[in-house]
Write the structure tokens for this entry.
Amino acid sequence: MNPANEDQAIAPDMVSDAHDSIRAIQWLDERLCLLDQRRLPSEECYQYPGDAVAVAAAIRDMVVRGAPAIGITAAYGVVLAARRRYAQSPDGWRGLLAEDLRQLASARPTAVNLSWALRRMERRCATITGDPASVLLDEARRIHSEDLAANRRMGEHGAGLIRAGDSVLTYCNTGSLATGGYGTALGVIRSAWRAGALNRVFAGETRPWLQGARLTAWELTRDHIPVTLITDNAAAYLMQTRQVQWVILGADRVTANGDVINKIGTYNLAISCRHHGVRFMVVAPCSTLDFTLNDGQAVEIEERPADEVLNLAGRRIAADGATAWNPAFDMTPAGLVDYLVTENGVIQAPDTQKLAALKPPPP
Ligand code: MRU
């Protein structure tokens, strides 16, 4: 139960700090510092990848994950790469950087924020004379801070849709860990919680990588927002028993018609929501919108190693001889989405026309 609903007031400035304390990506002392999300919640340790190859590996191996976070990390990766390339060849650094951009772009295929951020950094490169390091660092920092600002705006937009006393189920991790800070869907939940509107927050554990159980639960409890975990297969029953009025989650890519590509299992949740009359809200910044694709059919869905399904916490749990199929994402047709929340506004029942109206200028 939300203490704010019970009139146990906390001073507002304390609330905002208390509910938003985590940053997974930092630029510290000329180095990129990443909170290693594979080790959470049992260990809080950091990695400092020093070049494009190491940054690409950190993205691929999910030291850092979540669509906006991947884009921001890659942008800082370009800073590290350009610094090296300029030291190697002050005249030829741009040509050498092409291989670094390729490495970073191929780290993970599904989240469009990665290519969006790299395109923006590449455009900035074209305008530089002399040492590129500080100009590119400014651009990466801008990408980072714009994401945080977008999340706060989406938080307010999304929270405005929630009625006092509603409860919500969220999925995967869409919070500070997955973004520049505050979060997309978790940003809406943070804002709604702070306003005292939310009754309960449920999180799906998100097999097989357990982003819900390990990361969302860690992030929310750290930020003093009570969370109740469910197994993924309890979601339909949670809805049938009228315990949630909303499913609120993020996206790795939203195509021009409003199809949503997100963590595997999102499509199940959307179908269950429609059946039970539970509202389905997708929260994603404009950097997640992909206007180059008419619909979600053509999006490459990452397949991850079978071991992630066959093993748990480093131990084999599946019967010997079994194999596994492990798609990391699925596609939810736009027709199942009740609300798409971006920093530029809220769209009810998204379609091609409505999305075109909020199309941002190219980066
Ligand atoms: O495989 P992951 O953990 O990178 O997947 C993350 C998701 O699917 C998130 O829902 C999405 O990136 C939105 S994060 C704001």
